[in-house]
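TL;DR need structure tokens for one chain.
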Amino acid sequence: MRQQDRPPTLEQIEIARWTASLGAVTAEALAHRTGVSVRSARGKLIAAERRKLVSRVRPFAGRPSLFTITTAGLRACDARGIKRCEVSDKNANHLIMCAAAAAALERCYPHHRLVGELELRRDEREQGRPLACARLGASQGVKSGLHCPDLVLWPRSSEGGLPVAVEVELTTKAHRRLAGICRAWARCRVVAGVLYFAPPDVERALLRTVAEVRASEQVVVMPLDSLLGAPRAGGE
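>> reply
TL;DR here they are.
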């Protein structure tokens, strides 16, 4: 049997499942998540790419390649209802940092199950109610609807408990929009709290807004480096 005709391994299915949940992953993030070298993680992703489970794109020179799920990958990991992620110049850096944050959070919180925005949106569509999203109000300077976090940490304990929403904020939003989102999180009752991770300039704006709308009991702002550590030199 040719290699491409063999069933995917359990490891490849897990890589596909993680990729489907987050939308896109990098070799660096997979290496952090699994405790292997970046070279080894890249090899695993390339092997999954050869099996048509993921596809690769590199929007920026000097930055990591992004691997996204394919239709075959969705079938292989039984990720029904999850939509595929489209990578562009506008969202590539955010996807890279979300994958890095996801890997770091899984290492920091082994007693929680981490899911990405795409998996959360699928679950909320199926259940017909917000599970970890905040309801926005049109009167708050933003359009009404739901605001979804980038990542969610769900307790694995049989006792359950509310999830923690995680936002990776790389750029400063318009003040009215940011204030509206923070107010929505402040009154959200489907999450235990919200963790914002941001670089220094964005962190300062977030702290001011959180204080202004009195959301500090629900929203915690942390330096991005506290989660990711020192950035790796170079790209791939």
